[in-house]
Amino acid sequence: MKLNTQYLAFGYLAVLSALVWFGYGKYQDKAEEYARLKLVYDRQVAITDNAYHSIRLFNDIS
């Protein structure tokens, strides 16, 4: 059975499109996770900075 080059090209295009779609989905998941983790990290940094300044202020008063 002879393969038609048009069908072969269409098959390659379909596989390539599926791979790009899958990769983009994974990228979006990682981007959302990164944004969430950055928000948590920024909050933790703010809490730590506030605690450090509070302790310093308390030590200066004492």
Automatic annotation (TrEMBL):
Membrane-spanning regions, if any?
6-24
Taxonomy-wise, where does this protein's organism fall, top ranks first? Bacteria, Pseudomonadati, Pseudomonadota, Gammaproteobacteria, Enterobacterales
- Which protein are we looking at? Peptidase
Record keyword Transmembrane helix present? yes
Q: Which UniProt keywords apply?
A: Membrane, Transmembrane, Transmembrane helix
Provide the species name.
Answer: Xenorhabdus vietnamensis
Q: What domain of life does the UniProt record list for this protein's source?
A: Bacteria
